[in-house]
């Protein structure tokens, strides 16, 4: 079956949601966030290949076992490190995030040092092997850095509400993944890009809810009912389109996606405006409290209309008259 190739600049292509300036700045899909140091784990694993290859040239079973075990532990440490780098990339890509539950890079460094020590161990030379293992663990920490150890953007956020929002967003990501997997079956780049554009708008709403878990009540239908309906509609459309391409069905499906995308974007904007309104109210209340305490804001704090206040010359004239 032929595949239609296209993109943002192709005829009929659609620009990225949020405009070109915001392309690539939104919430990434699960598994899409990449750390720039991920490739290092493959190179370190390849550097441990002499342990694997040299094991078969060992003269005694103990040497074979230690070489194979050392390479296995080293490879496991690199796998753990790669998982930690992916978790760190997802943490860095979000404005509000919890620290990883398991410090994978730390455990990866320990396993790396242990694998080097086991692979280099020989009877009567365990101290030297331990020194090599410790050195390998330190170099691992210098090469990959530590794990994120603090929550980000969680100040003043109710942890219970945040956990509820995280569960809802995780379920919503499952529905989006179902839509994406279904649309891949018809191998039409235009429709795939259309679904990807809707997914970008949906994830923008996810990010709003993540930043403000109190908005979960307003977004619950969007994260649940609407996404489930969109997923089911996508599956049925793909089943119909795979049997016999129907231009009318395709137009109806694209119109449905356009309506959903508009609704999601409108709700994201309302949540943003609501947060701005809450901030303005907090600022106004704080100013009133400062005024009651007799504290005047600095002149650079705001540009206020002072046309009704007397000037310095008028104050001097009034002072002369009182004399």
List the helices and strands and how they pair.
Elements: H1 38-47, H2 49-54, H3 61-93, H4 104-120, H5 126-144, H6 159-183, H7 189-211, H8 216-243, H9 247-292, H10 312-322
Helix pairs in contact: 1-3, 3-4, 4-5, 6-7, 6-8, 7-9, 8-9
Features:
single chain; 323 residues; mainly alpha; 2 domains; 0% strand; flat; transmembrane helix; ChloroindolylP_hydrolase; membrane; 5-bromo-4-chloroindolyl phosphate hydrolysis protein; transmembrane
Mean pLDDT: 77
> What is the tally of beta strands?
0
Strand content range: under 5%
Taken in chain order, the helices and strands follow as: HHHHHHHHHH
**Overall form:** flat
Indicate how many domains the architecture comprises: 2
- Protein structure class: mainly alpha
Radius of gyration: 30 Å
Helix content: 55-70%
Protein name: 5-bromo-4-chloroindolyl phosphate hydrolysis protein
Organism: Paracoccus solventivorans
Keywords: Membrane, Transmembrane, Transmembrane helix
Characterization of the model:
By secondary structure, the protein is mainly alpha-helical. The protein folds into two domains: about 30-145; about 155-290. It contains ten helices and no strands. α3 runs antiparallel to α4, α6 packs antiparallel against α7 and α8 runs antiparallel to α9 (about 245-290). The termini are far apart. The relative contact order is 0.09. Mean pLDDT is about 75; it is low at about 1-10, about 10-25 and about 300-305.
Concise account of the structure shown:
This protein is an all-alpha fold and 323 residues long. 67% of the residues lie in helices and 0% in strands.
